# Entry
Amino acid sequence: MKRVLAIAGFLVVAVVLIAAIGLMVWEPFFARDGVAPEGDRTYTAEIVRDEFGVPHIYGATDPDVAYGVAIAHSEDDFTTLQDVVAMSRGRYGAIAGQNGASVDYVYHLLDARGIAEREWASLPEDTRALLDAYAVGLNDYAEQNPGEVKLGNMFPVNGVDIAAGFALRQPFFFGLDRFLGPLVAGEPLPPEYGPQIPASDLAPPEDGPRIMEEPEAQPLARASDPTPGSLRDDFRHAGSNAFAVSPEKSGGPTILVSNAHQPWRGPVAWYEMVVESGEGWHFAGANFPGSPFPFLGHNENLGWTNTVNTPDMIDIYQLVLDDSGTRYRFDGEWRDLEATDVTLPVKVGPFTLPVGRTVYRSVHGPVIKNDKGAFAVRFAALGSIDQLDAYYRLNRSENLAEWREIMARGQIPSTNFIYGDAEGNIAYIYNAAIPDRPKGYDWRGVLPGDTSKALWTGKVPYESLPQYFNPASGWVMNANNTPFLAAGPGSDLDPADFAPEMGVELKMTNRGRRAWSLMSEADVIDRDTLARIKFDTGYAREGYVARMMDEIEAIDPREHPELAEARTLMLEWDYSADNIGRADSIALLVIREFMSSAYNKKPWPDVVEELTKAKDHLQTHFGRLTPPMGELLRLRQGEVDLPLDGGSDTLRASTTWDVEDDGRLAVRHGDSFIMWIEWLNGQPVASRSIQPFGAATTRPDSPHYADQTTLFVQHRLKPVHFWRDDALTNAVTRQTVSSKRQ
# Structure
């Protein structure tokens, strides 16, 4: 009997061991085999790194340069590039666990791979060649550095994989995550959306559509962080600032300032570069991991930058399903709901678990089922990867007319574009793929999914978007605020001139208020004046700031004696996050959730609760309510630990942070890549830039892991060596890289 039990026990252990091994190794075998680009083309590039490690990449052809971009970026941050590749293959969960699997779910929901495969042939041949060359660079680096590869069977990749990554990520620039999370969880949609009622009860109002102004977030039902849970961390965008000033207003050069606010690490962190090919491509700027070209910056003649805009680009439809839940009603007929079973890899400790899910689609778009019904998500950019070609063409455009012609294609689905050039032109385009919606529905509410009358099929004409070209004021700006306050009194557009169905945002950020006011007041906006505006740390007592302060003042110290000191301190606050005032630290902590409520349209926080949390944090970690803000707010990278200024929604932005064990706030999101560009008449373009850390943000052993930090906290910029002679003069390293394909 003992022998039988021993054998049985052995068999159980063996089965468990086999299962454990299977869970550790199944994912690479299950994953779709990677495929290298077709053809036998070889690539050669020269990578010159300057004193700050910024790569200057040269090649005979544009694909040669794209190959070099992949090699240089891999040398500095291969770990993040692999995350992006895993996302583009639906395998991120095998790296990042449940949060990664959430991204993979969206990958399948949007059919990112299918979009890339279907649309690949529609891209121009030279754009496809650029993407393939970039993929070869990633493959070669992986082959030469196998110890750094995170997942088996991750490589090789090809241009379609790169395009699939774009198809996945682009919708998050205009806020898709704000809808997916609540829909998946069956929770209320963002506050601008109405109640989820049966689609059969929805009908267009008799007196036409009810178009609302920007709604104030109400404490009705809090929309949770998106589940898929990692979307906010991997793709979130806090905002950006952008400024362009004409020579007449500056008293000298055309000035363009790019001040994008992005995460300081991860798949949408900026990576700086200068590229130049023998075919005429010459550009300085920054890209995101997974891109063969910069998304913003400048060439010899012109430049642009971007800020996130939030027009009403997404519509939600409630479907009417039959009793089986497999068909939906549309124009009086029943249609099959497309259903595809997918397997999501979810890393848990040493194991990777296979988790089955079903993704659905209807004529409206992707469908999510929850306990309130089935809801379809629709946006005009779904199914397109044309932006890949558009950004490449913008890189190579030579004048305003050519640049405008590319923009007019409407291939880039969102973000404001702020422009400047050597001819003295400045511009601001409120760029967005806004649905061309018929009148008769409340497009801010959940729409009926059972009628084609509510189903739009196209975009509004590009010409109908808000646009500024050389306004009389001599300047344009945007800080994620309404485009109707962008160029000063007498030059701003009138919102009445634009159809309300477009859903153009009307909100004003604090940054927008401060920039608009400071630029409107300035007789001349020269370099020094614009620098003071860009690094401004002030708050206007308007909007959410005024409401917050009114509520703090209304706190009765007799009812809340424990908050008396904190309340008094806040009422003494000088409305600045400059690291000087006694109240700066407590104001920094208090204001964060109120800013988030206004910016992200979340429920309004409880002022007593927020002031209590701030008070308790400061007393716990500093023993007083008045530590200098620089002791609280820190830039931390490895051994570097420096004080920061700026706050949530100030033009000098320190927006999001991690609260560390010592109570300090380690900023991870805010002012990121800053680029200052000038064209002075008769002189070549000149630019300066800065990043919070360095060129090699995930390489602690690199001298460029944190070598820009001191300049960054001091509001200083470093030179951009745009011209080759200058780059070679300041070169620290030079190398030639070539592909091995024969």
